[in-house]
Structures are given as C-alpha cells and as structure tokens.
C-alpha cells in the first residue's frame, strides 16, 4: 500500500482528484506521522483538532461534483507567524502564548478557499528572529537529517515538517532567508516571492519592508502549486502588487520537461569566493553549475560589490523596523500581561516585555531603538538604507547581463545545537547569500543540490531573478531539479537517515 505521506503534493492531488484516495485518508496519514515522529522533531507547536472535519468536508464537496482547486484535500502546515482563527498564533513567543486571532491571514484564507487542509502551526524563532529555531520560546525544532542539528531558521518548523514527511507542503515567511536557509539545511525547496507578490496581511510583522510569505515543499512543482494559490493582489496589504501573475505551475512543468537551460545566462558573483563557504557547500555548488553548463547554460562572472555590506545594512534596517513593529506588545491591548502591584502602566509594560520577550528579541529591539534614536538615525538607519539602494543597483546591473544569479543558499550545512547560539555575528552570517534578495525585493528560490561531501548533510543552491520574474525561477529550478533527480535516482529526502532513510554511497553521497 502506498505511503501517502511520501507522495508529493502534486501526486497526492492527482490521486485525490481521481478518487483513488480521500482527503480524510491523506490527512489521517499525516496526523499519524506527526504523532509518530514529532516528539523527536518538534516541528509543530499546535496540531489542529479540526483537520479531519475539514478533510471530510472536502471529500463531501468532491463527491457532490463541486469543482475544486488543484490542491483541494492536500494537507498543509502553517508557520506560526501567520494568524489563524481556529488555532493559537504565537510567533514563537511567550508574549503571545494562547493568542487567538479574530481573522485569518490572507494566505491562510486563500489556502482554505482552495481546499487545503491545515494540519497545524509550525515552530519558529521568536518573531522570526533567528537562523536556527533555537530562539523559539517553546523549544527548538530538530533537523530530520540529524536530530542533534538545527533545521535552519526562522522557519525551521515548516522546513522540518516537510522534510520529515509530516506535511507535503507548508507556508513560511522570509525576511532575510527564513524560507531559503531552512530549505538548504533540510534538503527541501524554499521560495521567497517578489516583495509584494504575496499578501503579508495577517503575517505578524518583523520588518515590514523585508517580510515576504512563501511556500515550502519537497519539489519545485509543489512550491509552484502552492504559490499559485497564495499569489495575487490583496487590498488589505498596502504593499501588495496589482500585477496579474502567470501560472507558476505551468512554469515549473515547462522547466521539468523543456529545454530551458540551453542558452540560459547564469551569473556567479565574483565577490563570493569559495573561501567563505564550507568545502562541501562550495563543491556542491560548482557541481550544480557544471550540470547546468553541460545542459547548455552559460556561466557568467558578474560583480556585485555591495553585497558584502548586505548583512551589516540588514542588521540595522531589520532591528529598526522590528523595534517599531514590536512596540504594539505593550500589555494593554492583547497578549501577555504581568501585573505589578501598585505599579504604573510603564511598570506593567516593562515587566511584561521583560518576561515575554526572549534574549534575541530584546537584543534586536535595543539595537533598533538605538539606530532610530535622535543623533544616530542618519548615521545608522539612514546609511543602511543607502547601502540598500547600492545593492539594488548591483542587481539591476547584473540582470542586464544575466537571466538569473546563482549562489550557495547558505555558507554551511546544518550546524549542531548550541554551536553558534552565543555568537550572534556568526549566526547572522548564515544569511549572507539570502539577505540581498530581501533588501532588493527580488525573488529567490533554494533547491536541494545534493549532500555535502565532507559531512553528508543536505546542501542547497539559490537562484535569484529580477523582480516579478518568479516564474523564471520555477522554470530554472525545475530544470536543475529534474537533472539532479535523474542523477540521484530519486529525491534527496528519501535518504534522510534520522527518519529511516539511508545515506547513499558512491557519487550520490558526495557533492551532488
């Protein structure tokens, strides 16, 4: 009998539409999988008690002949940064413990309308501040490839849930790499759409000029299918683009079945030398480029001289915006309240924020408040915004010469718990290749490029495209994915040893 949890979302959707399997069966299989492995992985903060009822409703509507969406009946995991009416929304913080939202985030509402079945809310670094999911107030999520290692962050829960076959697809958010970096270390696919391409309404804000919601999956096609569901203009989001988006699903199918790599110009950044990356990451990246070059792509050296300042600019812009956004957690309107007998409103607010926020959130609030303070605004926040403009110009000049830019998705494979928790700078440098896309608002995708030859852990390759060219990333990503899957003889995640897989020998266990 087919293990329904091992099917891609696309394959499961075909079986559901054909009546070969019911949504109740698919949902129950994933709930059983969560019950079996999530005690070890801890991908979920809350598992829905309504999932089977929702699935039964989808089955009844399908039986009645109703025309349903392409993913109707497919289970979905939701990052806890997205508010939901039927499950708590905490953003991984004690200050929102037990909070029930009066409305759904737009992407959640669109997913429900398309017939997807929410399985639960996934773990994350508190308020999306982190690269390892070690900063969750509710304990860390563990990497399904090695339970002693991090699953990336801030969206480690969504990536781990998909990697552990607890959900076929998931929703995440990406402010500086929080979808793509977890994808890199868990062997999954993570897509950050063009800024404004997917509504942020109902996504608990971290840095409003950087945040973007996107899909997490095991295949490029699955991400495209979910992206088609959540994309489009939303009048509730003032930054939402009014563009009519092409079918991302069609783009992914074209990439997997067409000859899209022939003649493709792929930019490789001169300022990102191998010396800054773990050897296994660098060799996997070069091997993937070689595969694409053999298929007819042209590798072009490009310069992006201001990318090296991206981390510094980002860690001024993000804390400044976070300081402003998190001011709403004041003990008065919603969330945690720590009473101080005889104290003033300011005393209660201070006590509440001290008890409710973790160390990393406090660190960034302090940094951001300082950067915005009188006498320092121009020197810090203002200067960071100027660097942001220079990075945007680097992208403009690069895309005048190439179709996409390729980089390793992160400098290292998954590191061990505690390895970087006391060194914020080293933690922040995990996002060195992903941050520029958020600063410029361009789309980026990370797909698995194999296992690092030095430690056998997953590695991802990132592609970046001009703003509004998300479909281009699906074509390119699906084309490389198809080539690599053919070489591996299957998908990378079938090899995850911590969950019953086996790391392959020979060339498949190496760089690709």
From TrEMBL:
GO BP terms in the entry: translation
Enzyme Commission code: 6.3.5.7
Residue intervals of the Amidase domain: 25-473
Pfam family, one: Amidase
Top EC category: ligase
Keywords: ATP-binding, Ligase, Nucleotide-binding, Protein biosynthesis
Keyword Ligase belongs to the record: yes
Homology family: Belongs to the amidase family. GatA subfamily.
Subunit-level organization: Heterotrimer of A, B and C subunits.
Protein name, as recorded: Glutamyl-tRNA(Gln) amidotransferase subunit A
Organism: Microbacterium invictum
Top-level taxonomy: Bacteria, Bacillati, Actinomycetota, Actinomycetes, Micrococcales
Gene name as annotated: gatA
């Amino acid at each position: 009998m087919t293990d329904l949890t091992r099917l891609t979302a696309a394959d499961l959707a075909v079986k559901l539409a054909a009546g070969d399997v019911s949504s109740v069966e698919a949902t129950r299989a994933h709930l059983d999988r969560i019950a079996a492995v999530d005690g070890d992985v801890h991908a979920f903060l809350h598992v829905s008690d309504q999932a089977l009822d929702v699935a039964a409703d989808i089955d009844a509507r399908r039986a009645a002949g109703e025309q349903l969406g392409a993913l109707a009946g497919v289970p979905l995991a939701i990052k806890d940064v997205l508010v939901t009416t039927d499950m708590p929304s905490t953003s991984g913080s004690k200050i929102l413990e037990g909070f029930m939202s009066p409305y759904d985030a737009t992407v959640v509402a669109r997913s429900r309308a398309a017939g997807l079945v929410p399985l639960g809310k996934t773990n994350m670094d508190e308020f999306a501040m982190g690269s390892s999911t070690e900063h969750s107030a509710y304990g860390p999520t563990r990497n399904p490839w090695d339970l002693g290692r991090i699953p990336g962050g801030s969206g480690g829960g969504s990536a781990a849930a998909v990697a552990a076959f607890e959900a076929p697809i998931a929703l995440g958010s990406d402010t500086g790499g929080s979808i793509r970096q977890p994808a890199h270390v868990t062997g999954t696919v993570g897509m950050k759409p063009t800024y404004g391409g997917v509504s942020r309404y109902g996504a608990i804000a971290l840095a409003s000029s950087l945040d973007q919601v996107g899909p997490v999956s095991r295949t490029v096609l699955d991400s495209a299918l979910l992206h088609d569901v959540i994309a489009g203009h939303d009048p509730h989001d003032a930054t939402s683009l009014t563009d009519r988006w092409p079918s991302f699903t069609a783009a992914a199918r074209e990439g997997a079945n067409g000859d899209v790599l022939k003649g493709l110009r792929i930019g490789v950044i001169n300022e990102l030398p191998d010396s800054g990356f773990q050897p296994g990451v660098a060799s996997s990246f070069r091997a993937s480029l070689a595969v694409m070059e053999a298929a007819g792509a042209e590798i072009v050296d490009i310069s992006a001289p201001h990318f090296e300042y991206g981390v510094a600019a980002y860690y001024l812009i993000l804390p400044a915006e976070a300081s402003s956004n998190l001011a709403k957690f004041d003990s008065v309107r919603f969330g945690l309240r720590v009473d101080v007998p005889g104290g003033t409103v300011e005393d209660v607010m201070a006590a509440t924020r001290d008890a409710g926020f973790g160390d990393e959130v406090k660190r960034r609030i302090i940094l951001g408040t300082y950067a915005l303070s009188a006498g320092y605004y121009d020197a810090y926040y203002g200067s960071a915004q100027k660097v942001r403009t220079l990075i945007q110009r680097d992208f403009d000049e690069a895309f005048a010469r190439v179709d996409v830019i390729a980089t390793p998705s992160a400098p290292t494979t998954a590191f061990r718990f505690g390895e970087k928790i006391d060194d914020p700078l080293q933690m922040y440098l995990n996002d060195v290749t992903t941050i520029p896309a958020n600063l410029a608002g361009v789309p980026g995708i990370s797909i698995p490029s194999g296992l690092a030859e030095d430690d056998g852990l997953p590695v991802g390759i990132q592609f970046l495209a001009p703003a509004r060219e998300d479909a281009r990333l699906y074509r390119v990503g699906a084309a490389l994915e198809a080539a690599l899957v053919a070489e591996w003889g299957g998908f990378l995640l079938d090899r995850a040893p911590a969950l019953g897989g086996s790391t392959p020998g020979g060339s498949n266990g190496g760089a690709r």
